[in-house]
From TrEMBL:
Matching PANTHER family: HTH MERR-TYPE DOMAIN-CONTAINING PROTEIN, REDOX-CYCLING DRUG-SENSING TRANSCRIPTIONAL ACTIVATOR SOXR
HTH merR-type domain ranges (all copies): 4-73
Keyword DNA-binding attributed: yes
Keyword annotations from UniProtKB, A to Z: DNA-binding
Claim: Magnesium is one of the keywords in the record: no
The protein's name in its UniProt record: MerR family transcriptional regulator
Superkingdom to which the source organism belongs: Bacteria
Coiled coil (UniProt feature): none
Phylogenetic placement of the source organism: Bacteria, Bacillati, Actinomycetota, Actinomycetes, Kitasatosporales
Native source species: Streptomyces uncialis
SMART domains, per database record: HTH_MERR
One example GO MF annotation: S-adenosylmethionine-dependent methyltransferase activity
Amino acid sequence: MEEHLSVGRVAGLAGVTVRTLHHYDRIGLVQPSARTPAGYRAYAAGDVERLREVLAYRRLGFGLREIAELVDDPATDAVAHLHRLRGLLLEQRDRAAAMVTAIDKELETRAMGKRTTPEEQLKMFGAQLYETIGSAYPATRGTEPRIAARVWDALGDARTVLNVGAGTGSYEPPDRDVTAVEPSAVMRAQRPPDAAPCVAAAAEKLPFEDGSFDAAMAFSTVHHWRDPIAGLREMRRVARRVVVFTHDSSDSGWRQRFWLTRDYLPEITGLVAGRPSVDRLADAIGARREPVLIPWDCADGFLEAYWRRPEAYLEEHVRRAVSVWTRVGPRAEQRAVHRLRDDLSSGRWTERNRELLALDTAELGLRLLVAE
Ligand SMILES: C[S@@+](CC[C@H](N)C(=O)[O-])C[C@H]1O[C@@H](n2cnc3c(N)ncnc32)[C@H](O)[C@@H]1O
């Protein structure tokens, strides 16, 4: 006969109160599958496994209703839960480690009787983000040759090029004299050995004289800058020509047009609130705006890349290489993934997005800003 544990024993092992277990039972979250002859709750191995999942999601900050949805999902077995929990915990650990480092630095600064600037205090949420998530970047991020060709074309005859927010250097033109700028040490460390020389600095304060470069470029980075307008003006100051690849996050440009942000990640609105519009960015440097269509098989896994391959967003490694998923937090992420998985298996996603399946490229609000 299968061995059962009493409610007191389970509570003791799990470090929760018997009242909590009674509550979980009443709301149907973890119901012991048996009773002792005297009528007491008795937990079988499967009940304990479910409780372990519930407690782990709870510790990650999920609400009881969300946890119920997660643990009741028939498509996720115990091993899949363990993988998902492991990923979420590692991410939380890395995020906490980055914050501890930042706090230690601030304590040191204060111990020396100095004050930290608002910029330093907020650093852990900006470029610091890439110190945390940067190591997951190369898994799916790289050069998309058709978009690279557009950027390189826009650089015109520039011989010297500054690449700001360069990351691992995916879009650096191979045939020009490139200097990279990248504030995150984790990203700098992942640049290939033969990549262009890289300076540790931020866009808002470029350590170069006026007019030092023929052109300056910034790819998929402006939305991370503390002050995008100041950064773009800096690029304009140090270079004759400026080329920026970014997205139009307005309702019509992106939020309502792209099914992922529209139907699954409404939290994105909070992330882009207060950010300058693509028109303001362009106007700040007198740039023209050119739409960039995304090929259906886009080789660089940025947020919009998988518009015709929705299953990709169910993959942990795909999401970890795109900062939005970390910035919305684990709850919104899991809810979005859960709903998308349901809609894919029920056919609802296809019903809603059927017209996309016939397209080879999509206009999803991505823009090239070119100032000459
Ligand atoms: C999505 S990655 C893009 C990297 C690279 N341009 C590419 O396309 O592969 C965004 C990069 O912007 C950098 N970044 C964040 N804040 C920045 C700032 N204030 N100035 C310059 N770069 C910044 C991050 O560290 C990160 O490497």
